[in-house]
Amino acid sequence: MPSMSVSLSDKMRGFIKSRVEGGDYHNESEYIRDLVRRDQERLKHEDALEAELDAAEASGISDRTLPDIMKAVKERLKANGRL
Question: By CB atoms within 10 Å of each CB, which of 1, 15, 53, 74 scores lowest?
Fold first, then answer.
């Protein structure tokens, strides 16, 4: 696996070291890889949210009233057994 060098402040290095010493990670590299994976997941969720927002905006303005929407939500929750 190729390596990468990064510069960190003493405070950041100490924090990473404390996470490893605390038993959360086996080594510094594992911690950094976990951060990168979490960031990748966050970006994936942001992209999905943006797509949902774009689709919602493109669908136009609803002609349903708030009580109509609330009624539909309650019916859907009852049908799922969640209400």
Answer: 1
* Element holding 19 (H helix, E strand): helix 10-21
39-69 in b/e burial notation, b at 16+ Cβ within 10 A? eeeeeeeeeeeeeeeeeeeeeeeeeeeeeee
Domain that holds residue 52: 10-80
How does pLDDT run across 12-31, given as a tens digit for each residue?
999 999 999 999 999 999 99
- Element spanning 64, H or E: none
34, 26 contact by CB (below 8 A): no
3-state secondary structure of 36: helix
Residue 29 in any domain: the answer is yes
Instruction: Enter the tokens of residue 50.
Output: 């943006």
pLDDT for 42: 98
